[in-house]
Each structure stands twice: as C-alpha cells, then as structure tokens.
Specification:
Length: 165
Amino acid sequence: MTPMKTEITRASEGDMDGILALQAANQPKRGGVLSANLPHARIAAMMCEMPLIVARCDHRVVGFLMTSSREMNADVPIITAMLAAYPGSADAYIYGPVCVAAEQRGRGLAHAMYSELRRLEPAREGILFIRRDNPASLRAHEKMGMRVVAEFEFAATKHAVLSCG
C-alpha cells in the first residue's frame, strides 16, 4: 500500500462540505474539543475575507485552519473575551479554529497548514485561544513558535491566548 500524498492549500468553495463534516465530527458532543460550530455562511464569508487553509488527502479534507478579521467575528462572545484579555497589534487577525482529522493527527498537518498561512500572511500577528484542558493543542502551537500572552475564563473554562507572527 502506498502512502497518500497530502496537499496543503488555500480552501475553495469545493472544500466546504469536507470542512463542515470535519467540524461536525470534532464537536464536544462527539468527543472533540472544537470551541466553535460555525455555519456554512460564516465560513464562506471568512473564506472570502482571509485565507482558510485546508489539508487534503486523496481529495478529502483532513484538516482546516480558519482565519478572520476581528470585525468578522466581533459578535462571537468567546472572541470578545479573548480580545479583552489581549487585543493584539493594530492589524492582527483571529487564528482558528484549527482541526485535523483524528486519523491524521501527529503527522505535522497543523504545522504544515500554519506554514502555508504564514507564507500568505507573512507580516501579520495572529491571535488565538486554546482551552487550558487541551494540552496537546497547547504543545503543538508552542512548538510552532507561538507564545502564551494572556489568559481568560469563559463559560467556567480557562483559556490561554497565544500570539503568532
């Protein structure tokens, strides 16, 4: 059996079903740790505004990394809480959510998607939050060179704010 090649690229509308399916599979009620469940329309708007990176294996979406302006998600309470804890630089963007299919984890896909994002947005700061009870994600993002810059609590859960870029 030959290993399948993974493609890391900017998402297109054709990736939407795969992004939505991966997001649904990683919701807390299904054992996942995603903090968001974004509707199709919001993801499509985010995709038009800033890079949304996907990892595809055998033409199937196995990872995504979303980004948006602060204004795009200003109505999301957890984003508001994060930005109150750390507003970032004047042109900072929101990094995340990021998700990798369970069977693809540990293969460097999150880092590869982040590298593609940095290629597309080389001089901008990204701001993200990670639940403190998700040490694997914290370690992975710190290995990518991101640093914890603040903390906040939301819905009785502690979160770290990280900065990249």
